[in-house]
Design a protein that fits this description.
It comes from Cyprinus carpio carpio. Belongs to the MINDY deubiquitinase family. FAM188 subfamily. One of its GO terms (molecular function) is K48-linked deubiquitinase activity. The protein is an alpha+beta fold and about 450 residues long. The protein has helices spanning about 1-35, 35-45, 55-65, 90-100, 110, 135-155, 170-190, 230-240, 240-245, 250-265, 265-270, 290-300, 340-345, 355, 415-420, 430, 435-440, and strands at about 85, 115-120, 130, 195-200, 220-225, 280-285, 285-290, 310-315, 320-325, 335-340, 360-365, 370-375, 390-395, 405-410, 445-450.
């Protein structure tokens, strides 16, 4: 019996050792995956009782702890002597609050690894950015994609022909120029066509933050470069385009910071209404863009709603104490929205004509929470009603699995699209594809032909 008990004790000991080893491995993985800023914060908190303030020596030690993918390669930083304005602690707090509503949230790995990456030059998809599939960064990337298309298709004399061929012969140099033009367009519009600010990261920290501010070793190293001429903005971005398009650059976050400072935080607070106080919110564990940020990207104003103008009444037609802020002007790029779940619960916001009918036939599409772009090379599509009888739209969803731009044929004179799909049972996505339903929010009742492609979004 004693031998048997000894054997049981040995087995228990071995199991415990195995579990301890697994737990140690898991803990090691967790430590490697944890955000460096969180590690630093805990280091600071544990040291608070023994020191009154963060020392310069401790800051230097913290900087050494940062490893890829969170640290920015030295080649993607600029010299502190380049001439920018270092970010102040007060402005850093305002920036954090306008983004997250507090100073403790920081961008996660999904955001930090996001940048503006083109597909292969001189290929059928050479105009296209490779975007995140989910999360907040993909919305920003897809708006920039729309402005890249604007540059490649319509940056030419009005009487010259725009063709898809011009999108398929884009080399690396032209990709850089198109990205710089797109970023400049968006920033300049946000600055009311008077000014724009570009944020870059320096090799040195600009300030020592307060204890109630969570470090990310990125924002604290920002320098702001402000310009009064659009050409100067574009030239500066071209000169530093690697800071937005290279891996490790945190390019999407850098552009978002530039957008906020181009609009200015005071203007953005005036753009908001009682429904919105900051730009990002948490969904499924990630920070995603509120409508105010999408509108800022598309129109230059961070208004929180998709309807035209201002609304003095709520959904029940009751008078509001303060008006709700919608879209005031048409922009170059439009916006379409469709969400199957929101439709099911009768909660889908109605997009106003300011966003549905942009100046150019390019639309960023929010389809079930994922982002894509629809566009046409035919500039007359929005100005000649006869063009809308039968026309083509091109669809791109930002994913590397899409090997060719999908051409859709839109027929607005046939009104039997529901009857065509009545024999399809089961999956509602097969019966009523989400892309088609999105298009019908603009061209009601239209029949959409995928020209041999299996519907997707």
């Amino acid at each position: 019996m004693t031998d048997y008990q000894d054997l049981l004790q040995t087995i228990k000991s071995l199991q415990h050792s195995r579990l301890s080893y697994i737990e140690l491995l898991q803990e090691e993985v967790k430590r490697n995956q944890d955000r460096p800023s969180e590690k630093i914060k805990s280091d600071e908190d544990s040291d608070d009782s023994s020191r009154p303030a963060t020392s310069a020596h401790h800051i230097g030690a913290q900087n050494e702890q940062f490893t890829a993918p969170y640290s920015i390669p030295q080649t993607l930083t600029v010299s502190p002597s380049l001439g920018g304005q270092p970010l102040s602690p007060e402005l850093a707090v305002s920036l954090r609050n306008i983004l997250f509503g507090n100073t403790f949230h920081i961008f996660n790995y999904e955001w930090k690894k996001s940048f503006f990456k083109f597909r292969e030059p001189f290929s059928d998809m050479s105009y296209a950015l490779e975007t995140e599939r989910v999360g907040g960064a993909c919305a920003i990337q897809m708006v920039v994609q729309a402005y890249i298309i604007k540059y490649l298709l319509f940056n030419r004399p009005m009487n010259s022909e725009c063709t898809m061929q011009s999108m398929m012969t884009v080399g690396e140099k032209e990709q850089r120029k198109a990205l710089a033009a797109a970023l400049t367009d968006i920033l300049w519009t946000a600055g009311e066509e008077q000014t724009a600010t570009v944020c870059l990261v320096t090799s040195e920290r600009c300030f020592t933050p307060h204890m109630d501010y969570k470090l990310d070793n990125f924002t604290e190293r920002l320098q702001l470069f402000t310009f009064k001429k659009k050409d100067d903005v574009k030239s500066f971005i071209c000169e530093h385009i690697q800071c937005f398009k290279d891996e490790g650059s945190h390019g999407t976050i850098l552009f978002l910071y530039s957008l906020i400072f181009s609009r200015t935080i005071d203007r953005m607070r005036a753009d908001f209404d009682c429904t919105t106080t900051h730009l990002l919110h948490v969904s499924l564990g990630n920070f995603v863009c509120r409508q105010a940020l999408l509108n800022l990207l598309l129109t230059g104003r961070a208004t929180p709603h998709v309807f035209n103008g201002a609304s003095l009444n709520d959904e029940q037609d009751e008078a509001l104490a303060q008006p709700l802020h919608g879209v005031l002007t048409r922009s170059h790029v439009g916006y379409l929205l469709w969400n199957r779940e929101q439709v099911h619960h009768a909660q889908l916001p109605l997009v106003g004509s300011m966003l549905k009918t942009p100046k150019l036939p390019i639309w960023v599409c929010n389809i079930n929470g994922t982002y894509s772009v629809l566009f046409s090379p035919n500039r007359s599509l929005l100005s000649d009603w006869k063009m809308e009888h039968l026309f083509h739209l091109y669809f791109y969803n930002g994913q590397p699995t899409q090997l060719n731009t999908t051409m859709l044929t839109i027929d607005t004179h046939s009104h039997h699209w529901e009857a065509e799909n009545n024999d399809i049972q089961g999956d509602p996505e097969k019966k009523f594809p989400s892309v088609e339903m999105t298009i019908r929010t603009k061209w009601e009742g239209s029949v959409i032909d995928w020209n041999g492609t299996v519907p997707f979004f």
